[in-house]
């Protein structure tokens, strides 16, 4: 193992000597190449940071939308329950009017569409989290 390490040391010393013996213009060319690589990597990192921030902001925005939509669904459900309870108290097992049926169907439709919207937002949120994790 010592011989192996000595061989690696000799190889590295050879590379250093080769770099030292290079003409100045080749050293400058190597420095410029390394500086160019560094600049490209810094630019890629900055782009990645901006994308991450953008995705994070979008995720927070979608979470707020989801929360407000869920809150709206809860309010609509409470309203529907109250309306049904009042109708029961008022009607005492009478046949509901066509108007109350329409309101009930409208509320049911709104609740169903809001649930679909919530599912869509949750899917989009999950995909954005996957993108953020990937970035």
From TrEMBL:
Keywords per UniProt: Coiled coil
Gene Ontology CC terms, in alphabetical order: cytoplasm
Annotated GO biological process: cellular response to lipopolysaccharide; positive regulation of canonical NF-kappaB signal transduction; regulation of transcription by RNA polymerase II; toll-like receptor 2 signaling pathway; toll-like receptor 3 signaling pathway
Signal peptide: none
Disordered: region residues: 1-24
PANTHER family the UniProt entry points to: TNFAIP3-INTERACTING PROTEIN 2, TNFAIP3-INTERACTING PROTEIN COILED COIL FAMILY MEMBER
Protein's recorded name: TNIP2 protein
Phylogenetic lineage: Eukaryota, Metazoa, Chordata, Craniata, Vertebrata
């Amino acid at each position: 193992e010592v011989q192996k390490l000595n061989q690696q040391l000799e190889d590295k010393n050879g590379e250093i000597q080769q770099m030292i013996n290079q003409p100045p213009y080749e050293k400058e060319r190597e420095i410029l190449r390394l500086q160019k690589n560094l600049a490209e990597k810094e630019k890629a990192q900055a782009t990645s940071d901006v994308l991450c921030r953008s995705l994070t902001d979008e995720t927070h925005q979608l979470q707020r939308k989801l929360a407000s939509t869920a809150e709206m669904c809860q309010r609509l459900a409470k309203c529907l329950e109250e309306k049904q309870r009042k109708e029961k108290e008022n009607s005492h097992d009478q046949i509901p009017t066509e108007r109350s049926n329409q309101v009930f169907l409208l509320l049911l439709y709104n609740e169903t569409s809001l649930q679909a919207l919530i599912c869509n937002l949750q899917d989009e949120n999950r995909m954005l989290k996957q993108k953020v994790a990937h970035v």
